[in-house]
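I'm stuck. Please check this protein.
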Amino acid sequence: MHPILHLVTRIFAFTAVRYFILAGIPFTFFYIMARTRFVRNKIQHRQALRKDFQREILYSLQSALVFTIISYILLFTPVTKYTLIYRRLSDYPAWWLPTSALLCLIIHDTYFYWMHRLLHHKRLFRLTHLLHHRSTNPSPWASYSFHFIESWTEGAVLLVIVLIIPVHPLTIAFFTITSLIINVYGHLGYEIMPRSFRRSFLFEILNTSVHHNMHHSRFKGNYGLYFRIWDRFMGTEHPDYVKEYDRIQAQRFGNECGPLSS
């Protein structure tokens, strides 16, 4: 096998296996093994169909291939020298690794919010983003389920990151894994935040599975990925979000779970 093809194959295998593990474990647990146990955590009462899961997996593998190509170009071709990717850990202090990982998430959230809103423009939505929204009741398998064009716009955030901040390949790996885990949670279809989260200051900052699930079921609002900040600042958070979150948590814990919306 040609060395380039061999390397691309290895990257794709890693990306695909990562997807099947990080999406497959919660899917198996919530949708098969403990389905009746967590019925109160279910955000939408109706169930997705097997054909929905198959579609989500198929398009997610397509996205994994696109992400593989982007990663190969940025990490293993002459393009690397035009980026801020560094290989020796000693080039930057130890504290920069976690700091750069956090900055990756912040940059990604900003990039995703505006890219996501753009894809909801009526001229682009049917061409690209509608495929992702076919999962009106998303499952973890929907995490990478994008149209071919959208896969490139989703993966291009890595190009943005490596052009504006120094990152080590370990940081890139941590970022992509963390991003997928959070994305799986957003598409889980079940709310698993603890009762105390509602009274925490983090509730005002972080997104939840309910937050993104509402975007899928209502097709507008709640465009953010990790944080509520851009949606709240731009007035695009769905006005019923807090009420819906409280409804789900009351469904789980009873009305004593925290402050409820009127």
Q: What stands out?
A: The mean pLDDT is 94.
